Amino acid sequence: MLGEYLIQGRGAAEIAAGVERAVGAGELEPGQALPPLRELAAQLGVNPNTVAAAYRILRERGVIETAGRRGSRIRAKPATTGREELRVQVPAGGRDLSTGNPDPALLPRLAPALAAAAEQEDGRPFLYGDDPVDADLVRIARAELDADGVPEGPLAVTSGSLDAVERVLAAHLRPGDAVAVEDPGWGSLLDLIPALGLRTVPVGVDDDGPRPDDLRRALESGARALIVTDRAQNPTGAAVTATRARALRAVLRDHPRTLLIEDDHCHGIVDLPLHPLAGATRHWAFVRSAAKAYGPDLRLAVLAGDTVTVDRVRGRQRLGPGWVSLLLQRTVVRLWTDGALDRTAVAESYGARRDALVDALAERGVVAHGRSGMNVWIPVPDETGAVARLLQAGWGVAPGARFRLASPPGIRVTVSTLAAADISPLAQAVAAAVQPSPGRSYA
Asked: Rounded to an integer, what distance in angstroms lies between the CA atom of residue 49 and that of residue 318?
C-alpha cells in the first residue's frame, strides 16, 4: 500500500508529522492509499482513536483526503508539495516564460521612495501603540476604491494578497468548509485552501470571469466562500465585465451568507475597468497588492471589507506579526504620489505584448485567451507533450496542472519580457507544439 515506507509514531501529532515529512520528501506519492485505521493502530500498537486523530490532522493540513469506504489517501496535490514544484527547468540559452513575474524593466526605482520613507521614519520613529496603518496610505487607497465603486468599509494592511486571503478565510471558516474557486485559477491559492483544511469547489471561468451557473451550483452544493479575481485573472487573463458582474451579484444575493473575497492584484497596470462584486453579501473583502505594479518584494496589500471581517483580521494580526512595517507603507505611499510609475504606459505595454501573441497564435489556428494582465492561456490536447516540445524549441512555459482542478489541459505563457521580435517565433513554436488546436473553451 505504501511501498517501503513505514508509518511510525506513538502520538497523533507524531504520526501526522511523519506522514507529512514523507510526502514532502517524496517517499509518499500523491494518490497512495493509507492503511485502514485499525490496521495501522495494530501495527503501531496504539489506540485506533490515536490514528483517527492523526488522519484528522493530516486532512486539516491538506495532506490527505478521505473518500468514505475507499479510505484515506495522499491528496493528488498535497499542501506539503506546492504547485510551484510543477515548474519547468529551462535549458541554458532558453527563454523562461513560466514565472508569472512582471517585467523588471517596467518596475519603478525603489531607492528614492525608500530613502524618503526612511527619512520620515528618522524624524518620527514608529513605536508600539501607534496606529499600525499609515494615514496617507488609507486616504489614497480609499479614494481609489471609491472611484472604482468598492463599498465603504474599514481598511487593513497585510503582507501581500495571499496573506490577506488567508487571514480572511481563517476569520470566517472552519476546517472542512468548502470554498468556491476559479478553475483554472491561481496555483498558490489552490495550495493555500487545502493547507487550511478547507475544500475547493471549482467554478469554471471564461474570458468574462466566473460562470454564473457554475457559481450557483457551487453555492447550492454548500460552498461557504467565493474567491474571485476581478481583472488579470491568473492564468487566463479573464476580466469580469459589467454584464457578468450583474449576473454574479444576482447569484450572490440569493446566498447572502457567502464570504466574498475579491483579488485586484494588477490594479494600476491593467487596461480594463473594475466591476466589483462587493456589497452583494454580508461579509466581503477586497484586496489590492503592490507586487505586480511595484515589485514582488513589496509585500504589501490593502484590504477593504465589512467591519466584522476587517476587525477580525486586525485582531488576529495584532497577536501575530503585529503590523506591516510603516517604513514599507510609507515607501508605497511615496511610489504612489511621486509618479514613479506611469500606470497607463505599463498597462499599454503589457497589453500590446499580450494582444500581439494572441493575434499571432490566431493567425496560426491556435486558440488563446488573455483579455488583461501579463499572461496568456492556451488550451492544449496534450499538456505534457506541449510543454516538452516547447522546451526543446527553447521556450519554457508553465504547465496548466499548476492551475487546474477539473478544467481541461492548457499552458500559461507570461508575456512580460517578450519583445516584438519574439512574438512570431514564439507563436510558431507554440503552433507546432499544440496543433491541432482543440478550439474549445478552457473550463
From this structure: 36
Considering only CA atoms, give the Rg of the chain.
23
Please report, for residues 121, 148, 272, 383, the alpha-carbon distance to residue 378 in angstroms, rounded to integers and kept in the order given.
47, 30, 21, 10
Please provide residue 283's backbone torsions phi and psi, each rounded to the nearest 5 degrees: -115, 130
List, in order, residues 6 or more apart from 112 with CB less than 8 Å away.
Answer: 334, 338, 340
Query: Is the separation of the CB atoms in 88 and 398 below 8 Å?
Result: yes
Give pTM, 2 decimals. Answer: 0.84
CA 413, CA 396: separation in Å to the nearest integer? 8
Q: pLDDT (tens digit, 9 = 90+) per residue, 224-261?
A: 999 999 999 999 999 999 999 999 999 999 999 999 99
Measured in degrees and rounded to the nearest 5, phi and psi for residue 116 equal -65, -40
**CA-to-CA dists, residue 415 to 28, 97, 99, 122, 263, angstroms:** 36, 7, 10, 41, 21
- Write down the residue that cell numbers 444576482 correspond to: 250
Q: Measuring CA to CA, which residue among 141, 439, 173 is closest to residue 303?
A: 141
For β-strands 72-74 and 64-66, DSSP reports them as antiparallel
pLDDT digits (tens, 9 = 90+) for 159-205: 999 999 999 999 999 988 999 999 999 999 998 998 888 889 999 99
Q: Coil, helix or strand for 318?
A: helix
Q: Is 119 exposed, middle or buried (0-12, 13-18, 19+ CB in 10 A)?
A: exposed
192 CB-near residues (< 8 Å, 6+ apart): 162, 165, 166, 169
pLDDT over threshold 80, residue 1: no
Burial 150-182 (b: 16+ CB within 10 A, else e): beebbbbbbbbbbbbbbbbbebbbeeebbbbbb
Nearest CA among 67, 83, 78 for reference residue 28 = 78
Residue 131, CA atoms < 13 Å, CB-side half-sphere: 10
Provide the pLDDT for residue 4.
Answer: 64
